[in-house]
Amino acid sequence: MDNILIQVTGTKRVVLFSPSDVQYLYLNGDKSEVLDIDNPDVEKYPEFLKATRYECNLEPGDILFIPALWFHNVISLDFGVAVNVFWKHLGIYYQLNVPLDRALKTLDELPVEYKEFYARRLIARIESKVILRNPDTT
C-alpha cells in the first residue's frame, strides 16, 4: 500500500529500496530475510549488495511518501512519535494468488511499474518451486 510517514517528534533513519530491486532483497513473503541492512551476511545474501539504497533522516515535521511496493527499513535514532497513513488503490491487483493463466492476464492490465514488480515476484516463486523439485538442475 502507499504510505505517508509523518515524523511528529524524534528522529528516524529511513532506507528505501525500489521495487525494481526485488530480485536482490531475499524476500520471504513481503519481508526481506536480510535483517541487518548495514552489515548484511554477504555469504548468505550476496545479491543484496546490488540493491540501490535511498536513505534519509526524518526530523519533527518531516513527511515522507513511500509508494506501494517500495521496501523500507526504519530505525529510530532517538525516542519519537510518528504517524503512518496507508491506503490501497490496487484492488484485485494487490493479490496475485490466482492460477497462472489468470495471473498472466492480470499482469497485462497493470501499470508498468506494478507489472515489472509482480512479474519478478512470480518468476522468483516459480524458480524456487522448480529448484526445490529438481535440486540437481543448475
From TrEMBL:
Xref: Pfam families: Cupin_8
Classification via PROSITE patterns: JMJC (PS51184)
Single GO biological process annotation from the record: wybutosine biosynthetic process
All copies of domain JmjC, residue ranges: 1-104
Molecular function GO labels: tRNA binding
Protein name as catalogued: JmjC domain-containing protein
Lineage: Eukaryota, Metazoa, Spiralia, Lophotrochozoa, Mollusca
Organism domain of life: Eukaryota
